[in-house]
Amino acid sequence: MFSLTVREIASAVGAQNATDKWADVEISAVGFDTRKLFSGSLFVPLIGDNDGHAFIEKAIENGAKAAFWSRPLDEAPTEIPVIQVEDTLKALQALASYYLKKIHPKVIGITGSNGKTTTKDMTEAVVSSAYRVHKTQGNFNNHIGLPMTILEMPEDTEVIILEMGMNHADEIRVLSDLAEPDIAIITMIGESHIEYLGSRAGIADAKMEIISGLKPDGVLIYPGEEPLLEERVHSLVKEQLKTFGTTEKNDLYPLTIDAQMTETTFTTNAEPDLSITLPVLGTYNVTNALAALSAGLVLGISIEQAAPKLSVFQLTKNRTEWLTGIHESMILNDAYNANPTAMKLVLTNFSALPNTGRKIVVLGDMLELGQQSRELHKSIEEVLSAESIDQVFLYGNEMHVLYAALLGKFAEGHLHYFTGDKEPMIHQLKQLIQPKDHILIKSSLGTDLLTVVQELKV
What we know:
This protein is of the alpha/beta class. 31% of the residues lie in helices and 19% in strands.
């Protein structure tokens, strides 16, 4: 249970006004959305498209017991304590930093172009085999979500796992400096946000910002087969570096992998005789699990101790989940996020799965690829073969270049392209799908193929 007094909060954020009258008032939660407040909350009126100060009466009505305030004090309510600050967002972050130091858990920060959320979920499973754990919920992983995750941490938390997302340079630096991780994990370097960062090298620079706040004795866990990271880790000593990947050059790597429709089993060099089962599809998820297991090893958790928890870990919704589809089909829903590297990985794994029906893929635009968008969309052609995929449905303006590239590879009636209204594509899919078909649906969230998933699932 979160519990801070107004005195503590005012001191933590450097209040610009006197709060002695309210010093002993206890606050049990923090929130910025008036719809989600409850009795005992500190209201944080953030300023964005709307000014949160305008909703102070609603906040009080919904249980706010105190509030940050960056407008003139003569505009502030008088029935609850207000803590005047220059910037309410910075005050939120400062309060999170104070609370994190007060509870003093071990901190694991996770970033990467793909696999952040899955690795976070796996790391929670591994670490919970020995510690009380709190983690980022959903993808609440930005400059607002990360401090909120910290402030929602129970007071008995021993390890906190913080997902760190970004779109632009210097964003992860802010999050790392706030969190000061004991362990930092980079899952992979892909092409996400290349529109803003210019190149994969620029993306690697941005992801390496996670070591900005790394504790002096902290450890960086990263894919050892990524040259862009190998070139950038030299500011840390050897003892601070742990690698994972598919080959023997890494500290932790798989010896065997058996990927099935709903689970993947593997063994590692660290425990060759121990089979570890993941309740998810994909050889790429083995590398996510290796990152999680590496974090466990740093914390003194053996792979043998962690394996049972990994076998039952819960994947965040919309991350590569199997759903029952219409006409007794099965849908592999991966429509929450997409970049070229991730799309190729899931297509390769999907293509290799055994099944008695047909394989249908529905692929939507991958966003934020900038000037390289056409080239990167076209590159998906490498992993699409008429020998393993029966039907290909492409959606979105950016997918036209892939459609043109595939025209000679797929027979007439097996390659389909749509833009704009999704209903014609949904209608055609409903007419086409047969029992035992497997359907992969993958795109960036902004392309909104989740609408298609909703229409095709039972």
